[in-house]
């Protein structure tokens, strides 16, 4: 019997990027990688930052990878990652991936009002105040990200889902 290969979180992220669900399963079943662990990967601008597999699938709009990850019992849907402390829902909202947002909301347990680490002054450009306790490092929530990027379909989905705290403040 051959010894099991040791995989890294970066291997999992590469499998997510390629939509190779069989590889994702093999990596996680090997037992060396936590599905919620962060690994380094380059963003759209070539800057390296850390992501969980779930956040990365949401950021790049990989519905196939997302469906697989959401099926894992130990998946943490509200985890924040990267230098900005962004959640999977925030990444999907910022990129306008409406189907990804729908999948997350349908999965349940997703906190629409979660926010990241920084604080800024973007509240004026949105025209709505948001609760700081649930913003990203920049102080934004998923609703703010979708609004700032003009993703009206995602904004409507978040508002229609209910329990959106429109009083979140970006300090």
Outline the fold blueprint:
Elements: H1 9-18, H2 21-29, E1 39-42, E2 48-51, H3 53-60, H4 63-70, E3 80-81, E4 86-87, H5 88-95, H6 98-107, H7 123-126, H8 142-148, H9 152-161
Antiparallel strand pairs: 1-2, 3-4
Helix pairs in contact: 1-2, 1-3, 3-4, 3-5, 4-6, 5-6, 5-8, 6-9, 8-9
Keywords: ANK repeat, Repeat
ANK repeats: 84-108, 138-163
3D architecture notes:
The N and C termini lie far apart (57 Å). A hairpin with a 5-residue loop joins strand 1 and strand 2. With 171 residues, the chain is mainly α. It is globular and about 50 Å long. The strands form 2 sheets. The chain has a two-stranded antiparallel ribbon with strand order 1-2. A two-stranded antiparallel ribbon has the order 3-4. The protein contains 9 helices and 4 strands, in the order H-H-E-E-H-H-E-E-H-H-H-H-H. Helix 3 runs antiparallel to helix 4, helix 5 runs antiparallel to helix 6 and helix 5 runs parallel beside helix 8. It has a single domain, classed as Alpha Horseshoe (Serine Threonine Protein Phosphatase 5, Tetratricopeptide repeat).
